[in-house]
Write a structure and sequence with these properties.
Blueprint lengths: L1 H21 L11 H11 L1 H33 L1 H16 L2 H12 L3 H25 L3 H9 L4 H39 L4 H10 L3 H34 L2
Length: 245
């Protein structure tokens, strides 16, 4: 913890030094300049409303990407025939730029929530499927044989045999997924939504207001770091305890 605090303090010191060297608050304001702006946005309700709008999109895209990608990845790792059929699709979507998918979804579906969430989901499903596929391939066949010998039900087999082995891969996909999804959501909002953190950043970008861009960017980064530290990292530690690492 002390190292993390020191690291953040060094980053803050670098910011202060950079702002002092530029001597231009329009280019890089000092950190303390953001506090009154942040307070005004919170009290007006604008910041909480836009944070919530972005967070809802992140949650929807995350759940859909993990669900669809997880099922596809498990099927591809479990059955080679499925893998041969879907692997070319996976390669294509892994190499398709996020911006292209976002623009196509907006053109085909319209500038609405469905297109926004679908664009983010399609961007993340391939990488989730890739990670989970490797997890399915790495399953211990002896444990599967044991479950069959003891005639475990499908539900118990999934709960006690399959999921514990996939857990490290699910955590890896979730952590990388969350880190990427919220960034893509901001791009989606930047290009075609009327609210959210990305929309606000776009608005203040047009006004060349660096301070407000930083207020919204740092606010949402703080939210996502809270999710990382409060949910994902504790879950990862629990998984490691199960595996004895």
């Amino acid at each position: 913890m002390a190292i993390k605090v020191l690291s953040v303090a060094l980053l803050l010191a670098a910011w202060i030094a950079g702002a002092a060297l530029t001597r231009d608050p329009m280019l890089l304001p000092q950190p303390w300049v953001l506090f009154p702006l942040f307070k005004a946005e919170v009290l007006s309700g604008t910041l909480p409303a836009n944070l919530w709008a972005t967070l809802v999109r992140v949650i929807w895209a995350f759940v859909l990407a993990m669900g669809i990608g997880g099922l596809l990845g498990y099927a591809m790792g479990r059955w080679e025939t499925v893998n041969r059929w879907l692997d070319p699709w996976l390669v294509v979507f892994l190499n398709l730029p996020a911006l292209v998918l976002i623009v196509l979804c907006y053109l085909w579906i319209g500038l609405n929530e469905t297109a926004a969430i679908l664009a983010v989901t399609l961007n993340k499903v391939p990488s989730v499927a890739t990670v989970i596929r490797e997890g399915a391939r790495a399953r211990d066949p002896d444990l599967a044989a044991m479950a069959q010998v003891f005639r475990m039900s499908t539900v118990r087999r999934i709960r006690h045999v399959v999921l514990p082995q996939l857990a490290p891969f699910i955590v890896a996909a979730a952590r990388s997924g969350m880190a990427v999804i919220w960034k893509i959501v901001l791009v989606v909002e930047f290009l075609g939504r009327s609210n959210g953190v990305g929309f606000q950043i776009h608005l203040y970008f047009q006004q060349f207001d660096v301070a407000m861009v930083l207020v919204y960017a740092l606010s949402f980064i703080a939210v996502m770091l809270t999710v990382e530290w409060a949910i994902l990292q504790p879950f990862e530690r629990r998984v490691r305890l199960w595996r004895g690492t």
